[in-house]
Design goal:
Residues 168-211 are annotated as: Disordered. It is a single chain. A hairpin with a 5-residue loop joins strand 1 (64-70) and strand 2 (76-83). The chain has 211 residues and is α+β, with helices and mostly antiparallel strands. A 6-stranded mixed beta sheet has the order 2-1-3-4-5-6, sandwiched between helices. The chain is built from 6 helices and 6 strands. The longest helix has 17 residues, at 133-149. The chain starts with 8 loop residues before the first helix and ends with a helix. Helix 4 (91-105) packs across helix 5 (133-149).
Length: 211
């Protein structure tokens, strides 16, 4: 038998109101740089190579996001790019968009006890490399989408006119940048593996790999 105290109606009303206010406030769905750095996000071994590869494949312009899934050796498994709609930055909306893109290009890993693959996000935007509330919303969305898809949450990278920067790590470079032409993909880089079975899923991955 369990004993406890039933909350008063006033307390229940107050708690419900607080939760509703939090869920309605986009500012609660973002991560500060210190929170991101403390989350134990795995470091990329060669961030410039990852950034250059995604930039070459997707050729992002301002307001373009590229979500990519890497295997334990940092080889690209799948990636997708999309343009951010003009709306207030909201981590919940970003999470839903990222999750939809991940589901479109790669099966989930929810049956694994420990995530093996890592998702990273490259976002091309206006402004300089300093953290913004929009970045915080993307961080929140990426972390949540990875949890729901059975992936490790990886780096969040901004691409501006000044170059690229891995937020929370301090690593950066001048090229590629938001205005630079894409570099040609190295001949040694293998394309993402395609499933052996046919059907719509194969076609989706084939189109993603061709980008």
């Amino acid at each position: 038998m369990t004993f406890g105290f039933a909350p008063s109606s006033a307390a229940s009303t107050s708690t419900s109101a607080d939760l509703s206010a939090a869920s309605a406030n986009p500012l609660t769905r973002m991560l500060e740089p210190a929170e991101w750095a403390a989350a134990g996000i795995p470091l990329l071994r060669n961030p410039r190579e990852v950034v250059s590869g995604l930039h070459s494949r997707h050729q992002p312009r301002h307001a373009t996001a590229v979500v990519a899934v890497l295997d334990p050796d940092e080889r690209l498994c799948a990636s997708a790019s999309f343009t951010r709609r003009p709306a207030p930055a909201d981590g919940w909306m970003f999470r839903n968009t990222l999750l939809a893109q991940l589901r479109r290009v790669i099966p989930h890993d929810l049956r694994r006890r420990t995530p093996v693959r890592t998702a990273v996000l490259l976002y091309c935007r206006e402004g300089d490399a300093r953290w913004t509330e929009e970045d915080g919303a993307w961080m929140w969305g990426l972390r949540d989408a990875c949890t729901l898809h059975g992936l490790r949450c990886g780096a969040y990278i901004t691409l501006t006119r000044d170059g690229w920067q891995v937020l929370g790590e301090g690593r950066s470079g001048r090229r590629p940048n938001a205005d630079s032409s894409p570099e040609s993909l190295g001949m040694s880089e293998a394309p993402p593996p395609l499933p052996r079975t046919g059907g719509a899923a194969s076609e989706v991955l084939r189109r993603a790999a061709a980008r």
